[in-house]
């Protein structure tokens, strides 16, 4: 049987906020989160911030945060609570864990996503680019023959 | 709000897009959270115990490596809940929960085999691709085949 | 307490198999700590080109990038543990090449291991103990001569062996089947003391090894209690007089097998197998029993036979033996059956263990099974190299213990 503590722990979620913003640095983000006066724990990270608290509190905060910079704030859930020793490199043998590299890679793609989201909201339709078809075999044969001939 | 399975299941970009367009992303951290906050389990760091690869036998036979089956014990429940899926065919990189190519092949197969509404698309490499990527995902998430599950 | 050792973990799948706590528990028991090399994404993105092996699994790329960080000296560790899931072909390639890479490019001891969800800290303990000994006691392992008057006791699963050594020579031996660990140790020890013509009180030091090493070490107040990978490799190069350069030590034991790559007398890479009884001395014991010959005669019988005359469908100690029995019932010659049994054990060791180490000549075979002549012969046929059997081969662990413990006597005197 689950005790009250167990239930409350399971009710707590953690979300990772990653910035790709021209207007906001992690410090600014933290200030804005504090200003919202929600019952959550916040930690600044190199990519943005982590927030942890009851599901409804975190989700409500996330909705408010998104409005601050709709195209510069990206959010996903995190499995581990903030500062969990099991995932902290200081307490578990050093070295970044796989999840860090995942964020490292995806953060690099966020500027492209920001722009694409903005354009989507502006109603810009993507221009479709057909993938070039494979070279016609007869044309290829001729090129090979020409190359060999010129050797 | 439909439950949308994303692949890679730990992708920031996909989780964000699904949430942004009003659905619930089914992501692996949700399963990890259940594990790491379970009282009574002490198998750090993820609290996956040798019992979990056995649970994974539901998805892959015993001759499949234990790491695949352990990962499937996390991803399997997400698959079962999914109303629709967004799959990136060639993600730039996937680590940890999605760090095993064999697991990823199996997950992709099981998503297809489930016959749920599904959008497959390539990972964007330039602005044009990114525009196309966001457009297709947004349109898919607002399409009637996805919205009918709400 | 011995100094803390940092073991770099290069792995894929340990967390998802539920065995990460087992690895860390085994390391903790030998006062070691598992550490993870810090790499960034650029290192990982480049690694296939840098290392030369293309893999589909990103976590294997991370594994290779971490290996390179160690080789490049960016991560400071004392030993390396490479582990991937059993039955993953891609991971087996990466594991094997990374193990070789670490061995060739660094002087760090390295072990590779393929695990399942059933792997426990108990299974890993002897491996971790050997790995940390190699890291921690390099000066002791560099010892090439036995000095003073020392004894070594090797409490194996099948037999208990003891030697007394004086000034680099074996002067007494004792060998008894293992029944009760302490009783058998006493008996072997007393026999060895008697044959050497000395009293226990005259000894400068005592070393113990083998399964019963802790129990016997406690009771007799041993100066060195050491797992068998380290002592067997030292004992082998000492007895075979191959202390310089490369060597490979193979010991097919009653319950498990060891294959150890040694350089200048110091073990650097090893495997310790113990899953299948079909690849152990037990298989030969049962064969001997079915043939109605003493185990000591099985080898010579095998030399007269031809393994190819017997069809064996399995390495298994149940089904493989059944094949042998069936062939006897259809008129097969006992010598062919003996040869087939030796070949079966050797072939399984060759296929499943020797791929995990660098087999470099000279190949030295030790342990009681090395005296079953058909077995080293079968190994020679498989490896296409000469297999050396040193004198006192069956006492290998005891000799290694007596040799190493004499180093501790010197140290204390200084």
TrEMBL record, chain A:
Superkingdom of the source species: Archaea
NCBIfam families reported for this sequence: methan_mark_6
Name of the protein described by the UniProt record: Methanogenesis marker 6 protein
Native source organism of the sequence: Candidatus Argoarchaeum ethanivorans
TrEMBL record, chain B:
Superkingdom per UniProt: Archaea
InterPro entries referenced in this protein's UniProt entry, alphabetically: Methan_mark_5
Alphabetized NCBIfam families for the sequence: methan_mark_5
The protein's name: Methanogenesis marker 5 protein
Source organism of this protein record: Candidatus Argoarchaeum ethanivorans
UniProtKB/TrEMBL annotation, chain C:
Cofactor(s) the protein needs: [4Fe-4S] cluster
Source domain of life: Archaea
Domain ATPase BadF/BadG/BcrA/BcrD type: 152-404
UniProt-listed InterPro entries: ATPase_BadF, ATPase_NBD, CoA_E_activase_dom, Dehydratase_Activator_Redct, Methan_mark_15
NCBIfam families, per the entry: CoA_E_activ, methan_mark_15
KW Metal-binding (keyword) present: yes
The keyword Transmembrane helix is assigned to this record: no
GO MF entries: iron-sulfur cluster binding; metal ion binding
Record keywords, A-Z: Iron, Iron-sulfur, Metal-binding
Protein's UniProt name: ATPase BadF/BadG/BcrA/BcrD type domain-containing protein
Lineage, opening ranks: Archaea, Methanobacteriati, Methanobacteriota, Stenosarchaea group, Methanomicrobia
């Amino acid at each position: 049987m689950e005790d009250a503590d167990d239930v409350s722990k399971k009710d707590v979620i953690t979300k990772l906020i990653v910035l790709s913003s021209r207007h906001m640095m992690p410090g600014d983000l933290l200030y804005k989160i504090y200003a919202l006066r929600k019952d959550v724990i916040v930690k600044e990270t190199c990519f943005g911030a982590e927030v942890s608290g009851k599901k409804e509190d975190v989700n409500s905060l996330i909705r408010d945060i998104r409005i601050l910079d709709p195209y510069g704030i990206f959010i996903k859930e995190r499995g581990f609570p903030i500062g969990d020793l099991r995932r902290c490199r200081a307490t578990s043998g050093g070295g970044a864990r796989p999840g860090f590299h995942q964020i490292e890679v995806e953060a690099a793609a966020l500027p492209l996503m920001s722009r694409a989201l903005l354009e989507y909201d502006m109603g810009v339709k993507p221009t479709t680019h057909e993938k070039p078809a494979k070279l016609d075999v007869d044309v290829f044969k001729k090129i090979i023959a020409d190359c060999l001939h010129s050797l | 709000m439909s439950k949308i399975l994303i692949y890679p299941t730990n992708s920031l970009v996909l989780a964000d897009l699904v949430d942004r367009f009003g659905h619930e992303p089914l992501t692996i951290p949700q399963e990890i959270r259940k594990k790491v906050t379970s009282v009574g389990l002490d198998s750090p760091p993820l609290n996956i115990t040798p019992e979990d690869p056995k649970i994974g036998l539901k998805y892959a036979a015993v001759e499949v490596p234990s790491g695949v089956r352990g990962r499937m014990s996390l991803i399997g429940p997400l698959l079962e809940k999914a109303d629709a899926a967004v799959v990136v065919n060639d993600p730039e990189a996937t680590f940890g929960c999605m760090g095993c190519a064999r697991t990823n092949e199996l997950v992709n197969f099981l998503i297809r085999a489930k016959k749920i509404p599904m959008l497959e698309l390539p990972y964007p490499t330039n602005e044009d691709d990114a525009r196309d990527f966001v457009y297709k995902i947004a349109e898919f998430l607002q399409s009637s085949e996805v919205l009918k599950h709400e | 307490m011995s100094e803390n050792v940092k073991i770099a973990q290069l792995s894929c799948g340990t967390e998802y198999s539920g065995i990460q706590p087992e690895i860390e528990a085994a390391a903790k028991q030998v006062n070691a700590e598992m550490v993870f090399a810090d790499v960034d994404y650029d290192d990982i993105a480049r690694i296939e080109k840098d290392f030369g092996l293309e893999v589909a699994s990103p976590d294997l790329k991370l594994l290779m990038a971490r290996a390179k960080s160690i080789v490049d000296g960016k991560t400071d560790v004392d030993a390396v543990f490479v582990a991937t899931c059993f039955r993953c072909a891609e991971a087996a390639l990466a594991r094997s090449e990374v193990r070789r890479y670490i061995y060739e490019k660094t002087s760090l001891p390295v072990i590779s291991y393929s695990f399942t969800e059933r792997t426990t800290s108990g299974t890993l303990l002897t491996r971790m103990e050997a790995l940390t000994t190699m890291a921690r006691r390099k000066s002791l392992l560099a010892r090439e001569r036995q000095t003073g008057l020392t004894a070594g006791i090797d409490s194996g699963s099948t037999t208990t062996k003891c030697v007394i050594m004086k000034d680099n020579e074996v002067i007494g031996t004792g060998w008894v089947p293992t029944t009760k660990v302490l009783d058998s140790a006493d008996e072997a020890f007393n026999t060895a003391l008697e044959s050497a013509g000395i009293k226990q009180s005259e000894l400068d030091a005592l070393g113990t090894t083998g399964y019963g090493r802790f129990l016997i070490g406690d009771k007799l107040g041993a100066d060195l209690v050491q797992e068998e990978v380290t002592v067997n490799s030292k004992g082998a190069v000492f007895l075979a007089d191959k202390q310089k350069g490369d060597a490979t030590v193979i010991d097919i034991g009653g319950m498990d097998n060891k294959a150890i790559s040694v350089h200048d007398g110091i073990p650097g890479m090893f495997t310790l197998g113990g899953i299948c009884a079909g690849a152990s001395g037990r298989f030969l014991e049962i064969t001997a029993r079915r043939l109605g010959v003493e185990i000591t005669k099985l080898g010579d019988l095998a030399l007269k036979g031809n393994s190819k005359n017997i069809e064996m469908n399995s390495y298994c100690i149940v089904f493989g033996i059944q094949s042998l029995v069936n062939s006897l019932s259809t008129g097969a010659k006992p010598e062919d059956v003996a040869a087939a049994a030796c070949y079966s054990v050797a072939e399984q060791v060759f296929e499943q263990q020797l791929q995990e180490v660098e087999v470099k000549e000279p190949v030295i075979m030790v342990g009681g099974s090395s005296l079953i002549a058909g077995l080293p012969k079968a190994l020679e046929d498989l490896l296409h190299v000469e297999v050396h059997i040193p004198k006192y081969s069956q006492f290998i662990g005891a000799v290694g213990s007596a040799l190493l413990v004499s180093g501790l006597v010197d140290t204390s005197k200084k």
